[in-house]
Design brief:
The protein has helices at about 40-45, 120-135, 150-160, 175-185, 195-205, 220-225, 250-255, 270-280, 285-290, 305-315; strands at about 1-5, 15-20, 30-40, 65-70, 85-90, 95-100, 105, 140-145, 165-170, 185-190, 210-215, 230-235, 260, 295-300, 320-325. It is of the alpha/beta class. The radius of gyration is 19 Å and the shape is globular.
């Protein structure tokens, strides 16, 4: 099969398409012939040598894909050859075929093309596990997502609105804010020209928001704490703004705040399977109803992986970027 290989640690230019051996499936795995794979910033970090795959996983990039089941392991019960599926991967999506544990596979939602379905697993599993399973966002609460025009952000806006939250977003351009507004965001804040803490306080009668999903990390930590409501929950999923900072902890006590952080890739298979099950039960119906839609910015061929990486690292996109074998 063909796969994108990282020839050395470095910039996008180190990505090359090569002929490699087909993956061998284990007894509890499914072999998927890939229709599309979606990019994530984690792919760029892995390319740079900063985000290694879990032990025993494919060394190729790619954390999610869609396609058709080509083979199943002896212990696989649910999936059959020919099923159209999408999957949360430990790695290996930038290829024509990938092996994935059965519990990390989802059916392509009704009404969604098999190609567009590649844009859903990582964002759906990330947002559902952090905002809903852990932070317990509920109807009538307020929710702020930083990077509202990203793949995570565009999905989070839609699913939070579906569950009856009032949604705030930050983004860095009027074009990105307009896209968030079109997806249902109630309050759109340009972080380059506005103080998001002041705007959040203004829009909530000084109370603050109930839940924040943050990909920035250190440089936003104090401001995130400052704009949380009593019993507010902050969930950190990235460190674009650094990993070290100094904060005033008094607000944590005074307002009974909760700060959590987590990633998906290094969770054990049982945890991932539990999240995938919840996503199918709670998110897929919203997708089937057309209330949550894939947001695909651009598609590239596998041979254009370097160009696709340049785009995702430029932050000039809105939503997801796909690679097509």
């Amino acid at each position: 099969m063909k796969a994108v290989v990282t020839t050395s640690e470095g910039g996008p230019e180190v990505l090359r398409i090569q002929e490699v051996g087909d993956p061998e499936i284990k007894e509890d795995e499914v072999l998927i012939r890939v229709s599309a794979s979606a990019l994530n910033l984690g792919d760029a970090y892995q390319r740079k040598g900063l985000y290694p795959p879990p032990p025993g996983s494919s060394t190729y990039l790619g954390l999610e894909c869609s396609g058709v089941v080509e083979a199943v392991g002896t212990n696989v019960c649910r999936w059959r050859i020919g099923d159209q599926v999408c999957a949360l991967l430990n790695g290996g999506g930038y290829a024509e075929k990938v092996a994935v544990p059965e519990g990390q596979v989802l059916p392509v939602p009704p009404g969604i093309s098999v190609t567009d379905a590649a844009s859903l697993p990582e964002v759906a599993c990330t947002v559902w596990s952090t905002v809903f399973m852990r932070s317990r966002l509920s109807t009538g609460e307020t929710f702020l997502v930083h990077g509202g025009s990203s793949g995570i952000g565009t999905f989070a806006v839609q699913i939070a609105k579906y569950h009856g939250a009032r949604v705030f977003v930050t983004a860095g351009s009027e074009e990105k804010l307009a896209a968030c507004k079109d997806l249902g965001a109630d309050v759109c804040i340009n972080y380059k020209t506005e103080d998001f803490v002041a705007r959040v306080k203004e829009e909530t009668e000084q109370r603050g928001v109930d839940v924040i999903l943050d990909c920035v990390g250190a440089s936003y930590l104090q401001r995130n704490l400052d704009c949380l409501n009593f019993d507010g929950r902050l969930f950190i999923i990235g460190f674009l703004g650094g990993i070290a900072t100094q904060v005033d902890l008094s607000g944590l006590l005074a307002k009974r705040l909760t700060v959590q952080a987590a990633g998906l890739r290094y969770r054990n298979p049982e945890d991932k399977a539990a999240i995938v099950t919840e996503v199918e039960q709670n998110v897929w119906p919203a997708v089937a109803e057309g209330k949550v839609k894939p947001v695909v910015f651009k598609c590239f061929s596998l041979s254009e992986a370097a160009e696709a990486h340049r785009l995702i690292e430029s932050s000039k996109h809105i939503g997801k970027i796909l690679l097509l074998p």
